[in-house]
Every structure is written in structure tokens, then in C-alpha cells.
Amino acid sequence: AQKKAEAAKQAELKYRQESCLAARKNLAMLNNGGRIMTVDEKGERHYIGEDEVAQGKLDAQRDIESFCN
Length: 69
Description:
Blueprint: H1 2-32, E1 37-39, E2 45-47, H2 50-67
Antiparallel strand pairs: 1-2
Helix pairs in contact: 1-2
């Protein structure tokens, strides 16, 4: 039981570290400016607007606060 608990704790730690890194990268990309493109489920390109960039920054900052402590 203790080994399972330790393995679960290590998995959670790894998940938090990876999520923290991803959130920091997302925030840096959004702060760099320029045109940011996404690809939808049909494979079509979509450039995100200022509102989506602002929301992305808020989401990334929230994720950083959540995972990077």
C-alpha cells in the first residue's frame, strides 16, 4: 500500500512539473506577440485574436499559480 501511495505521489509531482512548464511556455509565447495560429479539428488554420490572446494569458497565469508552487 505504501509503494502505491509513493508511486501516486511521484506521478502527481511529475504531472505538476510538466503542467507548470507547459503553462510557462504558453504564457511566454503569448507575451512574445506576433500572430498565433491554431489548427482546428478539420485541419484548417485559425489565427487567434486579441481577445483569445488575453484569455490565454489569464488561463496560463492561473495554471502557473496552480501548478508552480
